[in-house]
Automatic annotation (TrEMBL), chain A:
Basic and acidic residues compositional bias, start-end: 403-413
Protein name: ABC-type quaternary amine transporter
EC code(s) of this entry: 7.6.2.9
Organism: Nocardioides mangrovicus
GO molecular function, one term: ATP hydrolysis activity
UniProtKB/TrEMBL annotation, chain B:
Main location: membrane
Record-linked Pfam families: BPD_transp_1
GO cellular component terms, A-Z: plasma membrane
Compartments where found: Cell membrane; Membrane
Name of the protein this chain belongs to: ABC transporter permease
GO biological process, one term: glycine betaine transport
Keywords (A to Z) from UniProt: Membrane, Transmembrane, Transmembrane helix, Transport
Residue ranges of domain ABC transmembrane type-1 in the record: 65-249
InterPro entries attached to this UniProt entry: ABC_transp_perm/SBD, MetI-like, MetI-like_sf
Coiled coil: none
Transmembrane segments: 21-42, 71-90, 102-125, 131-148, 184-210, 230-249
Length: 420, 261
């Protein structure tokens, strides 16, 4: 098996999202003098992911909730597509806007299928169509419909609940999806997985997604655009991740993005850009002796065990291979999606003993192995390129840029601290 | 993908009842049956004088049990019909400021001695209502508090993010109430209803003072005629009935609890 480079851009679907436009939107809560949101204006292009970040209390969630009128703006206009949200009935409006909340916020007394079916039912879809749609969505979020559709939320793990939450948000195929810290309540490995999945779903669906997060790394990874807000939702910067990392507009943005901003570039680069190594693979049921021979010929000390659908199931060392034939591994192998970032890759590598990680592509199929050396080489290239373009940009803008050190990237010891 | 594997721990929890609850659910009707059989046996073999015999005649006792049950059920039905909607009203955004006041009044009603409430109402309403309906009114006033309080507590206990999630995906306020808030509050509301049932079945023993019937009649006869066996028989019958009603309350709680919570 040879290492293949995934080409995610070739799989993009047609834009099904709608543009969102905020014009001078202000929110003053009753009894408060200072507005929570003070005259924000911005445009989120159709089919893009806009990440709202900022310190707590900066008005990012208020801004989000004004889009579906969970909070009514005091003044200003919000337009989705070409319709003013205030011209539509509030319930009818919300049925056309997906809403995904931290932890999924599933209704505990309804099964997974019922949770997902709420909005389609409100829209009067017929039963057959709803059943089909529920299964389709469960598939989309990587949950086996026959196994999960009749479960109650408490029978699911946090990550699974969050997946169902995403499925519920997508249920009626809304052009716009609002997400409020969607992955805040799950562990880092699951979060990375969910982020990758959402990106892959988005590549297919091309919705307009507005997502509030407090995690700048998440914003950099997920966002086509990042909106960094200061107090009262004053826009500090609204631009692509590249630009925000490369030329922060002011001190506030530079501080917020963090001192190790060149390390943050790790969140911009994807595994698919790195050259993968092909490792020795084995099938469940193969003769152990043959596999060991093959591995030794390749100079490998471990083999990747694949199941009948090419999915990696384990990565045992040769000395762990006992018995006549390869048995189904019992370990919990954490694979890396080809869409994961280098940041994710380093996390995963540090959590296993192989100094590398198994990379999977569509439908979790094995692609190859990425190791530490490949990632650091790639980072060095990136750094060289970034320095070059920074030098050019710096001479243009006259030097409001923050200083960065070339050394930052070369010290492997710094890397463990990048996910904080 | 580790987290998509089903959790065995959770799957085991699905089977529902704990051992303790199962024992109570099966145990109470057995106790009541055994108790009643013992009473019937005692009644048939005991050496009773004429007064005792006529006080404990089966025909009269059955009638009183029926009256007692009817008082309990009608009063409890009225309690539910009044207290649950009132509790809902007192948790709505526009009217919730009234909640402390109403709960305070209901608290006061509960604190007033039941016999006083009953007699006062009887004197006050004398002639306007029959003894039965006066007793019903007093019992209902008495039983409202636990249901009202639990309806309010239950609804307030619903995770506000779930309510917001419901509104956020396009359910109307009414739909959120009936499809999310009430189902999630049901366990707490039902606990209140069970408490009310027990309160009402006990207090209904006093209804005989105002001619509304019930097993209180046997007790009072025993006391006024100074017939010890009659007194004890009345007490035993009331206790058995109360146990049975408490059991019905538990069964209702179990049936009404939505799956998944």
């Amino acid at each position: 098996m040879t290492a293949t480079e995934a080409a995610p851009s070739s799989a993009t679907g047609e834009v099904s999202g709608a543009e969102i436009r905020l014009e001078d939107v202000t929110k003053v809560y009753p009894g408060q003098k200072a507005p929570a949101v003070d005259g924000i204006s911005l445009t989120i292009p159709a089919g893009e992911i806009a990440m709202f970040v900022g310190p707590s209390g900066c008005g990012k969630t208020t801004t989000l909730k004004m889009i579906n009128r969970l909070i009514e703006p005091s003044s200003g206009t919000i337009v989705i597509g070409d319709q003013d949200v205030r011209k539509r009935g509030v319930d009818e409006l919300r049925r056309t806007i997906g809403y995904v909340i931290q932890g999924g916020s599933l209704f505990p007394h309804m099964t997974v299928a019922k949770n997902i079916a709420i909005v389609p039912k409100l829209l009067g879809w017929d039963d057959d169509r709803i059943v089909k749609r529920v299964d389709e969505l469960l598939d989309l979020v990587s949950l086996d419909p026959s196994r999960y559709r009749d479960r109650y939320p408490r029978e699911l793990s946090g990550g699974q609940q969050q997946r169902v939450g995403v499925a519920r948000g997508l249920a009626a195929d809304p052009p716009v999806i609002l997400m409020d810290e969607p992955f805040g309540a799950v562990d880092p490995i699951t979060r990375q997985r969910l982020q990758d999945e959402l990106l892959s779903i988005q590549r297919e669906l091309r919705k307009t997604i507005v997502c509030v997060t407090h995690d700048i790394d998440e914003a950099i990874k997920m966002g086509d655009r990042i909106l960094i807000l200061q107090e009262q939702a004053h826009i500090a910067q609204y631009d692509t991740p590249d630009v925000i990392l490369g030329s922060p507009a002011n001190e506030f943005v530079a501080d917020f993005v963090g001192a190790g901003s060149s390390l943050k570039q790790l969140s911009l680069a994807r595994i698919s850009e790195v050259e993968l190594r092909s490792a020795t693979t084995a099938r469940i049921g193969e003769r152990t002796a043959e596999v060991a021979q093959r591995a030794q010929a390749n100079g490998d000390l471990a083999v990747v065990v694949l199941d009948d659908r090419d999915r990696p199931r384990g990565w045992p060392w040769l000395r762990q291979l006992k018995g006549e034939t390869i048995v189904e591994p019992t370990e919990d192998l954490v694979n890396l999606d080809s869409r994961a970032t280098l940041n994710d890759a380093l996390d995963t590598m540090l959590s296993n003993g192989h100094g590398g990680a198994v990379v999977t592509g569509d439908r979790d199929a094995y692609l190859g192995v990425v190791d530490f050396v490949a990632v650091t080489d790639h980072m060095r290239d990136m750094q060289a390129r970034a320095n070059q373009s920074a030098a050019e940009a710096g001479s243009e803008t006259g030097g409001t840029r923050i200083a960065r050190s070339d050394d930052e990237i070369d010290h492997g010891t710094d890397l463990a601290g990048t996910d904080g | 993908m580790a987290e998509t594997r089903p959790s065995k721990r959770v799957a085991a929890k699905r089977s529902g009842l704990g051992a303790g609850a199962a024992i109570e659910l099966l145990g109470i009707p057995i106790i009541v049956l055994v108790g009643f059989a013992a009473y019937a046996w005692w009644h048939s073999v005991a050496d009773l004088d004429f007064v005792e015999k006529s006080s404990l005649a089966w025909g009269d006792v059955w009638l009183q049990i029926w009256q007692h049950v009817r008082l309990t059920l009608v009063a409890s039905a009225i309690v539910v019909a009044v207290a649950v909607p009132l509790g809902i009203l007192l948790t709505r955004p526009r009217t919730k400021f009234l909640a402390p006041g109403v709960v305070g009044v209901a608290n006061g009603g509960q604190a007033a001695p039941a016999i006083g409430l009953l007699v006062l109402l009887f004197l006050w309403l004398n002639g306007d209502l029959s003894g039965f309906w006066t007793a019903i009114l007093a019992l209902a006033l008495y039983g409202i508090l636990p249901v009202l309080r639990n309806t309010i507590t239950g609804l307030q206990g619903v995770d506000p993010t779930l309510v917001e999630a419901g509104r956020g995906i396009g359910l109307s306020g009414r739909a959120v109430l009936f499809r999310i808030e009430l189902p999630l509050a049901i366990p707490v509301i039902m606990a209140g209803i069970r408490t009310a049932l027990i309160l009402v079945v006990g207090t209904a023993s006093l209804a005989s003072f105002i001619n509304a019937g019930g097993l209180g009649g046997v007790l009072t006869a025993g006391i006024t005629l100074y017939r010890y066996p009659v007194m004890v028989a009345g007490a035993v019958l009331v206790a058995l009935l109360a146990l049975l009603v408490e059991w019905v309350g538990r069964v209702l709680e179990l049936i009404a609890r939505p799956k998944g919570i």
